[in-house]
Amino acid sequence: MDSSVALWCAGALIAGGIYWFVCVLGPAEQKGKRATSISGGSIAADEVQGNYDSYWSFFRRPKEIETKEKVPDFVDTFYNLVTDIYEWGWGQSFHFSPAVPGRSHADATRLHEERAADLIRADAGGRVLDVGCGVGGPMRAIAAHSRARVVGITINEYQVARARAHNKKAGLDGLCEVVCGNFLEMPFPDASFDGAYSIEATCHAPRLDDVYAEVLRVLKPGSLYVSYEWVTTDKYRGEDPTHVDIIQGIERGDALPGLRSHVDIAATARRVGFEVLEERDLAAPPAGPWWTRLKMGRIAYWRNHMLIKISAALGVAPKGTVDVHDMLFKTADYLTRGGETGIFTPMHMILCRKPRDSSPAADSSS
Q1: Strands (E), 168-308
Q2: With CB atoms counted within 10 Å of each terminal CB, which end of the chain scores lower, N or C?
Q3: Rounded CA gap, 90 and 157, in Å?
C-alpha cells in the first residue's frame, strides 16, 4: 500500500512538474503561440531542416546576400523559420525597446511603439504605412493609440496570416490591414499615405536607398516618416576582430545583408529626397539598457530549447527547429555583447519629412 501511494505521489509530482514546465513557463509573453504549435511557417514540416541549411548557405555566397534579387527569398526563408519561435518566446512585437524603470517589458514595448505614432503625428482619419510589419504587434499598438488606419506590409505570407488573425482577435481588423509584398517594390499608388514608420525592419534591405525611395514615393507631400534602424555606432572599430565577430554574429543570426554605420542613415534619407528633421539613438542614456531582456531570459532560453528538443524528438515540432532555436540562442549572445560594448544599437531613430513641393515625377527620378 505504501509503495503504491509513493508511486502515485511520484507520478503526480512528475506530471505536475511537466505541466509547470510546459504550460506555465512555456507560453509566449503574449497569447498566441505555445511550444506545441511551433512550425516552420509556410514551409512544410519535412522541409524545415533543408530550408535552414539553405539559409546558412547564403552566408557562403556573400555577394548573393547583397543583391536586390536574392534578398527577398533570403529574408522570407528566415521569417518562415523563426516567426513561431519569436512569437512564442518573445511576443507579437519583434523588436527591442529601452528598459523603463518600474515598467514591464510589455509596457516598455508599447511606449516605444506609441512614440513612433506620436513622432509622425498619426491620428484618427489618417492612413499610415507600417514598413515591415511582421505579425503586427506595433501595428495594433499604434492603431489603438492613434486610431489611425494602419496598413502593414511584410514579405512573408505566414506572417500575413498571423497578423490578420491577431488583428481580428484584438478587434482591430477595422483599423489594421496587412499586405504581402516586398517593401523594395510596394504595391501602393504614389502619395497614398499620410505617414509611415518602420521599426527595426529596413535593416533587411540590401540598399537602404531603395526602401527609403519607395517610402518617399507612397507618402503624401509634407507627410512624416520615422524609422528605428539597426546600426553600428561611433564606438565600432572595423580593425578590432572582436567587434567584427560580434557584428557578423548579429548579421548571420538575423538575416541581415550587412549592418550599416549610423553615419549612413541621414545621408541616405537626404539622397533620396527626404528632409531630415531629427536623428538620435533612442538607446542612449538616460534610456535603460535594451539588452537586459536578453540577459534576464537565459533560463527561459534554456527551458525553451529543452521544450523544442522534446517536441522535435516526439515529432510535434519539425526537424530542424532545434537548429533554428540554437541559432537564435547564440544570436542573443551576440546582441547582448553588441549592447554591452556599445558598438551596436537597434534603435537609431531618424525622423524625415517628404518635401511639400514634392511630386510623383520628382520622386520617381530620385
Answers
A1: 176-180, 193-199, 219-232, 260-261, 275-281
A2: N
A3: 20
CA distance 74 to 59: 10
**H or E element in which residue 352 lies:** strand 344-353
Residue 183: its H or E element: none
Query: Is the confidence at residue 114, as pLDDT, over 90?
Result: yes
Q: Distance (Å, rounded) from C-alpha 90 to C-alpha 137?
A: 11
d(CA 319, CA 313): 8
241-252 residue pLDDT tens: 999 999 999 999
- 266 CB neighbour count, 10 Å cutoff: 16
CA distance to 52, 90, 157, 170, 346, per residue, from 95 (Å): 22, 9, 19, 20, 8
Average pLDDT, the chain: 88
CB 150 within 8 A of CB 173: no
Query: Which DSSP category does 96 fall into?
Result: -
**Side-chain-facing half-sphere of 24: CA atoms under 13 Å:** 7
Q: What are phi and psi of 121, to 5 degrees?
A: 60, 45
| Beta-carbon count within 10 A of 247 CB | 21
In angstroms, the CA 330 to CA 265 distance is: 28
d(CA 190, CA 215): 9
Rounded to the nearest 5°, which phi and psi values hold at 83? -55, -50
| Rounded Cα–Cα distance for residues 308 and 313 (Å) | 8
pLDDT for res 289: 93
**Cβ distance 140 to 30 under 8 Å?**
no
Task: Read off the amino acid at residue 83.
Answer: T
All cell numbers assigned to 17: 512538474
CB-based contact 262:233 (threshold 8 Å):
yes
| Segment 303-323, tens digit of pLDDT | 778 888 888 888 888 889 999
Distance of CA 80 to CAs 52, 53, 86, Å? 10, 13, 11
Give the HSE-up count for residue 245: Cα atoms under 13 Å, Cβ half-sphere.
7
Give the model confidence (pLDDT) of 56-110 as tens digits. Answer: 887 766 555 555 667 788 899 999 999 999 998 889 999 999 988 888 889 999 9
